[in-house]
What we know:
It comes from Nocardioides potassii. About 30% of the residues lie in helices and about 20% in strands. The chain is an alpha+beta fold. The protein has a single domain (about 20-150), classed as 3-Layer(aba) Sandwich (Aminopeptidase). Strands 1-2-3-4-5-6 form a 6-stranded mixed sheet, sandwiched between helices. A hairpin with a 6-residue loop joins β3 (about 85-90) and β4. α1 crosses α3 (about 65-80).
Amino acid sequence: MSSDPFVPADFDPPTRLxxxxxxxxxxxxxxxxxxxxxxxxxxxHIRSTPGYPDGRWPPAGGMSSEANLADLTRHAADFEARKGxxxxxxDPGSGEVIGCVYLYPTKVxxxxxxxxxxVRADRAALDKPLADAVASWLExxxxxxxxxxxxx
Length: 152
């Protein structure tokens, strides 16, 4: 991994992507309850999603609301520090969390960002449209040129 900054100093990270099927906004503590419900209802589906090969996340036994809140707070701090960008995926009608997108530095040679995403099992049909929309968004609005999309 390079010692260069993850994004250029003068880059203003996008904070929203809106489609007919979902809305992306920065993940933060305000999403705790809905985020915890989303991923804990879909552990096996998420673990079978490309990009989650090691079986460590999500934790099979779940986690407490407090532990999830700490995780969301860490992601929000990474966003603020420009060390990584995590977006919650929201249903455009209800505002419920239906997934997540992670943009973090990668250790894979030849790539400049690792892109991971997941959706709830009951929204599995959105897996590919979400991955494709994020790929287009990266190409048009982000500074990276070689994303590691885990075969997506």
